[in-house]
Amino acid sequence: MPISGKLLWGAPEWAWPAIAIAVMLTLLVLWNYGFGRASRVVYLAAFFLKAFAIAMLAFCLLDPMRTATRPKPQANLVPLLVDDSQSMAMRSKANGQTRGKRVEELLEKSSSWRVRLEQDFDVRPYRFASRLESITASQPIASQGESSQLAKSLFALKERLRDRPVAGVLLFTDGNSTDESLSGVKWSDLGFPVYPVVASNEDSPSDLRITDVSVTQSDFETAPVTVKLSLSGNRVGSLPVIVQLQDEATKKTIQEQRVTLDKDGNAASIAIKFRPENAGVSFYRLIAFRESDRDALSKNETIAEATFENNSRWITIDRGQGPHRILYVSGRPNWEFKFIRRAIQSDPEVKLVGLLRIANKEAKFSFRDREVSGTNPLFAGLGDAEEEAAEQYDEPVMLRMGVEASEELSAGFPKTSEELFGYEAVILDDIEPEFFTQDQLMMLRQFVSFRGGGLLMMGGQESFDSDRFGASPLGELSPVYAPRRAVASDAGTYRIETTREGMLQPWYRLRETEEGEADRLNKMPSFNSVNSVGDVKPGAIKLATVRDGEGKSFPGLVMQRFGKGKTSALMVGDTWKWSMRRKPGDEDDPARLWRQMMRWLVNDVPVRASVRIESSNAGNGQVTIITDVKDEAFLPLDNAKVEIEITRAANEGDKEPAVSRLVAQSDSSIAGSYKATYFADKSGGYRATVRVTAEDGSEIASTQSGWASEASQDEFRQWDINRQLLETIAEKTDGKIVDDRELDGFVADLSNRKVPVSQVWTYPIWHRPWVMLMATLCLCGEWGLRRWKGLS
Question: Do 651 and 774 belong to one domain?
């Protein structure tokens, strides 16, 4: 059919003869009707019918022709763009048919609309999910893509068909796009009209899904991980729902909760608390299903929901890798070290290295000319070789415990930053500032502020001692000021009380409720040794106080941030009494508190090789693996080699985990930083094992990190077809929404629309059927009137 044109005359020389013939015949008809006896109305009607027929036949004598333009056959492209993402697997509640199956039926080669379309246009089928690709007739619509990059695919189609004539794109999708942002997309820049094809009779599906998931970790030993999730349902009713947490490694259910949705299909926030058994990176899977579907799921049968893909979520738990090494320095043997060491033995991720002074250095004395040995009397008589290596008079006698190598701490407290920075935390117990050299004190300050380590100062008769302590770098590191005068009382006994700030610290609490914590404190024994300190420094947090028999309160446990690290001060000097007086059958609260405190000390302490994962918002599963590498002095290290092995946790149906290997490249803008990009094409847990080697080939560190890819979850943000987005695309591109039941009429009318490549078409009007039909109808109508009224 023509879409535009103009009128031409094939025989203009017949103009005057045709006019003369028409006038003569009209006059004859007028003369004939002038002598009739019919009424005026019948006369006029019959006359005009016959006169119009004469005029049309006279018009045909001029051979009128019309020129128009129409699409050139097979010259214009019409791409068929099909959504192949998982949201197309949503099942209609009415007929149980998926959206993808409906589209597959529409695209049958034998369908009438497609046969008509292929007669006039060059039809190119494509499909899209995370990327655009062409398809053949033999390729089915699988509906397995984990994202719907609608805008990206349309503009990729524009680039692929650049400089090609595109008459329009038939778009088969539900409109649930997972593009990063659609607010700034200029659909008019596509340059061709888009015709979204949607189902007009699709009902809202019945479905249950997990919407939001958050994971928090703490040093609370009984439940260090809390997983919070929200459920949402559409047309599922107020039914009981089962929420399970499964371990990816063992496929076992760790916890199961039963909740009930409200009338709107929502559930209150659900919290699952548990303690991972293994250190490092672990993957878990949350699964929610209606209780009525439990048997069907156990038998792998189809359930009544629109899809089960949005009923599960992957979560990643990174508990860090040890062992975390802590240096314990004590001025004298004491009970505290015994109980701390015993408590930490049950934690394989924390290793305590002890450096205990068992004798102070002695002044060397010479009487007249008598030769005096330089060996400390404690080592006399052991032999010349042993005495030469033993501590001298002017050196304290130190006992090392838990060292990994014979040379570790052999010279006492570390004298170089490289040696000290090998630990992640330092505990100073009953040690005076004069024990350290000035260089060691400054190095200890750097350990906290620059290296980011943890420091715990414990009470004792040599701790927090007046001006000697306050004037040293230890006084600067301490979260409390040195005392200006003695402030502790002589009441004899002290009781520990937890402050409000202390109750908010998971690592300091031993009970989940405030009432339980208060009951624990009431059962705790009283103490007799408390150090005198000054005020708490600005910015520091007072976690516990001690109260004497007269009701006076003093700081008991205080913490603060200092540079990149953190420091804390425990003013109670005889906490070992708590462990000694624990009754049989009671919970081992002292040991548990020490373990949690040690975990807090080493928590978030930087390591030589740290890995972080940055996810892209593009919705294509892209992540950037960033590795920060430092040398022994914790300065950025360049020229290192960073190798990454990525393992995807096996899903159901996988024969074996998928493994990929990457080499990170140095970031020119940040010293010591190395980057690698990876595309997670499937949902699941991904573990990145990073091995860092120095320029000479020696290994610097080996660590792990992980992340969970949930690209498919964005597919199910909306249950119904996103008509609003599809209408916007159609409007901005001069297209229109097409009902899937009206495809035949739309394709028949597509030739009447503006197309890039067209051809001129000239045809005679008198050959058109309507011309002869109109003339015949006029003559038959005139004859019928005459017969009806009895005219001759």
Answer: no
Q: Is the pLDDT of residue 584 over 70?
A: no
**CB within 8 Å of 722: residues ≥ 6 apart:** 174, 175, 176, 177
- Pair (415, 539) in one structural domain: yes
Give residue 540's pLDDT band: very low, low, confident or very high (50, 70, 90): very high
d(CA 25, CA 756): 48
| Domain range for 506 | 324-360+396-602
Asked whether the beta carbons of 176 and 148 are under 8 A apart, the reply is yes
User: Does residue 216 sit in the same domain as residue 238?
Assistant: yes
Q: What does the pLDDT read at residue 727? A: 92
Alpha helices in 35-75 (DSSP H): 40-60
Question: Model pTM?
Answer: 0.74
Q: At what angle do helices 112-120 and 743-750 cross, to 10 degrees?
A: 10
Report the distance separating Cα 530 and Cα 555, nearest Å.
9
As a whole number of angstroms, the distance between CA 440 and CA 445 comes to 9
pLDDT beyond 90 at 542: yes
Hey, which residues does 182 pair with through a beta bridge? none
DSSP state of 714: G
Burial label for 264, CB within 10 Å (0-12, 13-18, 19+), is exposed
Q: Residue 449: pLDDT band by 50, 70, 90 thresholds?
A: very high
Q: How far is residue 648 CA from its own chain's centroid?
A: 16
Higher pLDDT, 279 or 666: 666
Domain total of the chain: 6
Token digits of residue 109:
């080669």
